[in-house]
Every structure is written in C-alpha cells, then in structure tokens.
Amino acid sequence: MDKMRCIIVDDEEGAHLVLEHYFRETRHLELCKAFYNAMDAMDYLYQNKVDLVFLDINMPGLSGLDMLEAMSNPPLVVLTTAYSEFALQGYKYEVVDYLVKPFEFSNFLAAVDKVWNRKRPILHHDYTTATVPVVSDYLYLKVESDVIKVKFAEISHIQSWGNYIRVYTDKGMFLSAVTTTEIEGKLAPEQFMRIHKSYIIALNRIYKVTGSAIILDDGTEIPIGNTFRRKVLDYFKM
C-alpha cells in the first residue's frame, strides 16, 4: 500500500506530540511537515502534493476554516479541535471527519479509514505514474463509544436497521450508526454482494441460491430484491 502524504496544522505543541505519536504507530501514513499556523501550511501546499491535512480550527490569525475558505482545491481534511460546535461549519467544506480533542488512537484510525475510502475511486497520485490500489482485508466499525476492527473473513452478512446497520460476524452481531451504502463502499467487491436494498452478503458464506433467496451456510435465508435479481442470476449464471 502506498503511503498517504500528510501534514499537521495546529498551534498547540501538545496536539503535535499526540498526532506525531499516532503517525509513528500507523505504517500507511507519511508525515511530511507540521505547521503551527495556517499561512505557512498554505505556502507549503501550494508547492507540494499532499493527500491529507489534520487541521485545527481555532488558531490565531488565519483559522482552519479561513484556510479552507481561501483554498479552491484543498487536500482531504480531518479537522482536529476542542470545539465541537464548529462541526457543522466544517462539513460545509466537505471535510472527511471531525475529531474532538482529546481523541483516542481508535478515533484517529477510524478517521484515516474514512479518508482511504474517500480516496478509493482514485487509484493513483498526481505525482507518480504508478497505480496503487488500496488493499485491505478489514474495516473499522463505530459501535457505541468504541471503534472495533472487523475482518472481512469474519462477516457473514449485513442488514439495514433504520439509521443503523447490523453486521453479523463469527464473533457476534454489531450495531453501527452507518448506512448500508457507506459500508458497501468499504467492502471488497470481490468478496461481498448487495442482493437487496437492506442486505449485503459475503459470497463465501453462500450455501444455496434459489429464485427468490440466498441461503447462507448457517441456514440464514436472505431475500433477493427485485432490482438486484438480474445481477444475482447473472453472477451465478442461472
């Protein structure tokens, strides 16, 4: 996996120390530079290719939001701030995630996972001719106040549940506040298939396919939605 090029923009020494520690624990990120004010960061961004900015909001002089307002094509951004009331303002600029200080390593990893999934349609960087796919065999799920790692091989199926999803795994069922479409974008398409507006199944868990349903190897019966029927039948050449 190619490393993602990152910078930190924050006026607090403590924030730099925490993020730098998290970077050392994360092999697929490269910390290129760290800045204590937005003007220096902008000068660097105009001359260098960067994938991701960890950006504080409340800084003297030019704030993080002022910086985003001033840039016509900023990199992907994760906001890091002690002020949760700025969250909605941040999403105006299509930031990927919003971390409220102090945040744990698990929150940092979950934000990075969202960035990788935002970048997934773009399989190369402008500054290289190599095309490097994002390879992963797991995802992170927000479950209540925790973030847990779930391997693809452990998942049997996923079910929509109102504003949540139920993820059925070998270790039990996990309820997570994410949409079915969002979770579908994090899954390996060669391992999973959406067969209904409310269901995604793991292909290696299929025991039997009928005209109207798929039976998993644990006996679970999943209906095939009308709009997905042709795709399923074509996949199995039925």
Q: What does it look like?
A:
With 238 residues, the chain is α/β, with parallel strands linked by helices. The protein has helices at residues 13-24, 38-47, 64-70, 87-91, 105-119, 180-184, 229-235, and strands at residues 4-9, 29-35, 52-55, 76-81, 97-100, 138-143, 146-151, 155-161, 164-169, 172-176, 192-196, 199-202, 206-209, 213-216, 221-223. It has seven helices and 15 strands. The strands form four sheets. The protein has a five-stranded parallel beta sheet. A five-stranded antiparallel beta sheet has the order 10-9-8-12-11. The model is unreliable at 121-135 (pLDDT under 50).
Annotation field: number of helices: 7
Which outline best applies? Answer: elongated
Report the average pLDDT across residues.
85
Oligomer: single chain
Sheet with the most strands, sense and barrel status = 5 strands, parallel
Number of strands: 15
How large a portion of the residues is in β-strands, by DSSP E? 25-35%
The percent of residues in helical segments reads 25-40%
Element order, helices and strands? EHEHEHEHEHEEEEEHEEEEEH
Q: Which residues sit in consecutive blocks of at least 5 with pLDDT less than 50?
A: 121-135
Rg calc? 21 Å
Q: How many angstroms separate the termini?
A: 37 Å
Structural class by secondary-structure content: alpha/beta
Q: Largest beta sheet: what is the strand line-up?
A: 2-1-3-4-5
